[in-house]
Amino acid sequence: MNVKNFLQSLLEDFVSSVVLIIVLLLISAVASFIYIITLRFILKPLIYLTLIGLVGALGFSVYYCISKYLQLKDQQVTSSVELRPDVNYYLSLSITWLIAGIIAGVILLIVLLLILVLIKRLRLAIQIIKEASRAVTSIFISLLFPVIPLFLQLGFLAYFIANAVILACSGTSLFRITGNASNLTLGSSCEQGSSPECVFYKYGFDTNTAFSSVIGFLNTYQWVPQLYNLFMLFWVQAFIVGLNQMVLAGCFGDWYWSKSKSSCILFKSLKDTIVYHLGSIAFGSLLIAICKFLRTLITLVERRLKSATGNNRAIGCCIKFMSCCCKCCLWCLEKVLKFINRNAYIMIAIYGRNFCKSARDAIKLLASNPLRALVLDRVTDFILFLGRLLITAGVGVLGFFFFSKAFDIHPTFQKYFAPELHYYWVPLVCVIIGAYLITKIFFTVFEMAVDTVFLCAMKDLSINDGSEEKPYVMSTKLLKILSVKNKKPKEKNDNDKF
Prior knowledge:
By secondary structure, the chain is mostly helical. The chain has helices spanning 3-16, 18-75, 87-91, 94-138, 147-169, 212-220, 223-258, 264-276, 278-309, 313-351, 355-368, 370-403, 414-417, 425-463, 476-481; strands at residues 172-177, 198-204. Strands 1-2 form a two-stranded antiparallel ribbon. Helix 12 runs antiparallel to helix 14. The longest helix has 58 residues, at 18-75. The chain starts with a helix and ends in a 17-residue tail after the last helix.
């Protein structure tokens, strides 16, 4: 089978199964929403069962390793150890199991100590995630909002590609004098066919027009507009991500402080972001774009230097080492800036201050609660990873049964739910990728809700004291976990003189 027939078969498989693909993707979206809703009910037992299972597995590992050591200790004749490529040889040594038992015991001790130290912070993380689940459930439309930034990113990506193609193909044929011609200067421009020495030079723009100096510069450095186009891609993509984060942060922040259950909160947050906060988003996204752009420039410089040095391996290794170090530092800086931007956007959306002050306030809150933030981040990552794995794998298995015709489908629906396929893995791969992207979109909203509720709770704890003038806004369960409470208002005495 040639490539054309193969690609045609792939396209036919996709078209014939598109209805079933859409149905399975809708199932993954519903499953993601149900998972977020049920987190408030299953999270606590899920986390505790995971910890019990981890401690139990480590305890059994210690028991098994020590038992194996005691068993082999009496059987082993020689105590010398040789270097062999055979793994079974090392497994037959008692010292191997003793070392493994000691390592497992140390890990078990560390895990038990961490649980004892962080148990209160773990309870706080669980309750924060439950509050975030309530927030997302109350404002259901927030789960659909990231679709708009996604389409904006895809649209600008298409615009960037079109711009790159236009810049690469723009201009006309330029001709230059390459030999000795009467009344003509060597290297000067000329018209095609005007002289035998007038030959094609390159594609570019005619400099015999207005702004000749600018046009001459662009003819010499045609890669400059492409770099500018690439920088704008980085900036706009980061700007769209920041817009999404700030709108969701304002939405969930408003939910925390006002306890409003109306979906109009999202539209109010979108309006406030567009009217008041676009400059802050532009500044934060500019920092991200600069880091990405510098990494790209380092890659280009590395390629140029390698081509200039030829086959000199020593110089090539030095250039690669320095390039990797610079790109690694910039990558770390980019991650730090993304973290700062995310939390700064939350504070901007809630309190309306500028970027620098909001970033300072966010860092101050996180620095004063480092263990709480760390535990919350790890627990959130765990449950979201588990959710992505369960939903993607579940929808993938369901799609496999449908596409491989493991189900008996009624003849009326066979056209849609049991199509004839050349390669059933084609729609199956589309379903798995689509299910992963859908869960990523839904869980991105949930992650933003968790971070916003956490910062709001910490801010609530720092600016309020539970008095009648400054009561805590957080829920009763959060108050109990944090060991604080609102003071009851004093009853007025009728005999009091005013």
